[in-house]
């Protein structure tokens, strides 16, 4: 068992080639190469384009991370890599690279769960995780609610999206509003000048007794509303639509996250994933957590989006826990 293990983490589940280096709970390097610009004209991530970009970015990004951390390959105690969930071809590039490094260096290799890594990363900013905690993970690829008694050994998925991920809904609605990809930050910005109650958009699965989410009905409702508006020849009030759509997403995300805390008697909620950068989600989560007596932890945006540091952080937890 190593107390403060030095771990290199590799993340390639989507469009970010992330390589991080951590020592225990201390972040030493967080190098990222993103292929997001190559996907922009398609309005979403194209798996084959992402895989090829990972291949090109892998070696230079590993090199940058080691330089930034001021460590050498030989110093590492372990290599960690995202094993899933994610795009199969993209994951394969990261796993192949990690296996090669581990084998060449004679270091142990840890294949880690991407969602658990989104939870573990918070330790780099806010210290050890409370046990248990609840995690709401929202990004372009996932919308999940997890009960986390122990991030090293016991992560229980309680709910997930049954269709579109929250970030995917932001991206698709941005597209119909004529905003660039990825749409989340643009909707967030546009919504600041709009009224969240301007249009009563549906809140899918709000009170259905599950911890699952559904955003495709909402996305369709927004598209229909805009079409009807355009047919009538009236201008589309972009700020109002953005604010009303955003409110519908955020309302249901926060409601179900607090439900999980209450139902399981858990006093700590962690919010992660790219959508955690959303200003309204942060505000509403803070308000409702305060009202419910729940402590809220949200890592800084760079740690919320996919990155290698989160994989290294979870790897370090596993090494410390003596995981095989
Ligand atoms: O975690 P991430 O970088 O990658 C994955 O999808 O796994 O998340 C990207 C997603 C995109 O869908 C993007 O539109 C969304 O996060 N996003 C936001 C905001 N910033 C990024 N959604 C809403 N509001 C934001 N401020
Ligand atoms: Zn992610």
Describe this structure in words.
This protein has 324 residues and is an alpha/beta fold. It is built from twelve helices and ten strands. It has helices at residues 36-39, 47-69, 88-105, 114-120, 122-126, 166-176, 184-191, 216-231, 238-263, 279-292, 301-304, 308-320, and strands at 6-11, 16-23, 26-34, 78-84, 109-113, 133-138, 143-150, 154-160, 268-272, 295-297. A five-stranded mixed sheet has the order 3-2-1-4-5, sandwiched between helices. A five-stranded mixed sheet has the order 8-7-6-9-10, with helices on both faces. Helix 6 packs parallel to helix 8 and helix 9 (238-263) runs parallel beside helix 10 (279-292). The chain is globular. Bound molecules: 5'-O-[(R)-(carboxyoxy)(hydroxy)phosphoryl]adenosine and zinc ion. The site of 5'-O-[(R)-(carboxyoxy)(hydroxy)phosphoryl]adenosine (KG4) has 19 residues, from helix 6 and helix 7. The site of 5'-O-[(R)-(carboxyoxy)(hydroxy)phosphoryl]adenosine has 19 residues, from helix 6 and helix 7.
What molecules are bound to this protein? 5'-O-[(R)-(carboxyoxy)(hydroxy)phosphoryl]adenosine, zinc ion
Largest sheet: 5 strands, mixed
Q: Record the strand order, biggest sheet.
A: 3-2-1-4-5
Q: How much strand content do the residues show? A: 15-25%
End-to-end gap: 11 Å
Instruction: Quickly give the structural class.
Output: alpha/beta
Parts with pLDDT < 50 across at least 5 consecutive residues: none
- pLDDT averaged residue by residue: 96
């Amino acid at each position: 068992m190593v107390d403060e293990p030095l771990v290199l983490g590799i993340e390639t589940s989507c469009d970010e080639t992330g390589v991080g280096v951590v020592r225990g709970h201390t972040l030493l390097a967080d190098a990222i190469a993103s292929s997001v610009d190559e996907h922009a004209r398609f309005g979403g991530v194209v798996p084959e384009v992402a895989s090829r970009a990972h291949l090109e970015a892998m070696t230079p990004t590993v090199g940058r991370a080691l330089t930034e951390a001021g460590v050498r390959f030989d110093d590492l105690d372990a290599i960690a890599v995202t094993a899933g969930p994610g795009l199969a071809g993209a994951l394969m590039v990261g796993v192949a690279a990690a296996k090669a490094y581990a084998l060449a260096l004679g270091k142990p290799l840890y294949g880690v769960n991407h969602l658990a890594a989104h939870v573990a990363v918070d330790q780099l900013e806010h210290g050890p995780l409370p046990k248990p905690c609840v995690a709401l993970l929202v990004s372009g690829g996932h919308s999940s609610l997890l009960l986390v008694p122990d991030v090293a050994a016991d992560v229980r998925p309680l709910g997930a999206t049954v269709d579109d991920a929250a970030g995917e809904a932001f991206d698709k609605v941005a597209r119909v509003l004529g905003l660039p990809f990825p749409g989340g930050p643009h909707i967030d910005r546009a919504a600041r000048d709009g009224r969240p109650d301007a249009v009563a958009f549906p809140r899918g699965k709000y009170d259905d007794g599950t911890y699952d989410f559904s955003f495709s009905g909402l996305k369709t409702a927004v598209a229909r509303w805009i079409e009807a508006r355009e047919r009538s020849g009236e201008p589309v009030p972009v700020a109002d639509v953005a604010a009303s759509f955003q409110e519908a997403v955020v309302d249901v995300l926060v409601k179900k996250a607090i439900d999980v805390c209450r139902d399981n008697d858990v006093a700590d909620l962690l919010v992660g994933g790219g959508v955690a950068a959303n200003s309204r989600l942060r505000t509403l989560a803070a308000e409702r957590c305060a009202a419910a007596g729940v402590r809220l932890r949200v890592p800084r945006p760079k740690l919320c989006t996919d990155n290698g540091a989160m994989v290294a952080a979870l790897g370090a937890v596993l090494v410390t826990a003596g995981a095989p």
